[in-house]
Amino acid sequence: MDLGIAGRTALVCGASKGLGYGCAQALVREGVNVVIVARGAEALQAAAKSLRETAAAAGGVTPGVKHVAADITTAEGRAAVFAEQKDFDIVVTNAGGPPPGDFRDWDRKAWVAALDANMLTPIELIKATVDGMAERGYGRIVNITSSSVKAPIDILGLSNGARSGLTGFVAGVARSSIAARGVTINNLLPGAFDTDRLRHSMEVGARKSGRTVDAMRESRENGIPARRFGTAAEFGEVCAFLCSMQATYLTGQNILLDGGAYPGTY
Predict the structure, then answer these.
(1) What family does this chain come from, according to its entry (predicted)?
(2) How far, in Å, are 2, 122, 214 from residue 97 at the CA level?
């Protein structure tokens, strides 16, 4: 299927690896010019090189790939991105989740950091780009959030709170006047995906429980109806579809990708 977005320009955050990289890769395959941003310069450069190879292999007009090593959760980081590229047709927001723990141990500083990264930064990016998208008559904003928005996890209270705040904000702004001007905003909610973050959490869990990492992995996968973890590539393909011309009538939604793990009807 031709998604009809070749030649568009996208900003993809947290794109040096994992789910952000998967989204950038899928967009590049569709002929989208991308600006990728992440804090680690070395990993980001490697990702940019790989994306250029993906673009060349896809054939057709080769899209451009730019990279900005910056912390998108800061005003300075966002300024560096917009100095590189002013206008975007597509924005994929993404930032690492806050650490797990007991809510009794979190002070105001911890809460503000979580809100800055997982609620306020996406809102700032939406604010900076949505009016230009509306003026041009096309825009796609996809926020990578978490399955915990649908099924909160007790030890991830910082994430539950911050991401739920973003979800409420998006529910309103996606249905504002921009919806009639070709701009959609949706959230992608990942469950368990085979990323460095998940592997690290399993290693930590294995050390604490005395089990092997393989045993931890098997246990986690057996709890998912699909009996496996998701891949960054398939996550990226769903993201690319949400950015497509075919998804024009889809906005203000929370798309859950978890292999069927969420047990609810709605």
Answers:
(1) Belongs to the short-chain dehydrogenases/reductases (SDR) family.
(2) 33, 13, 24
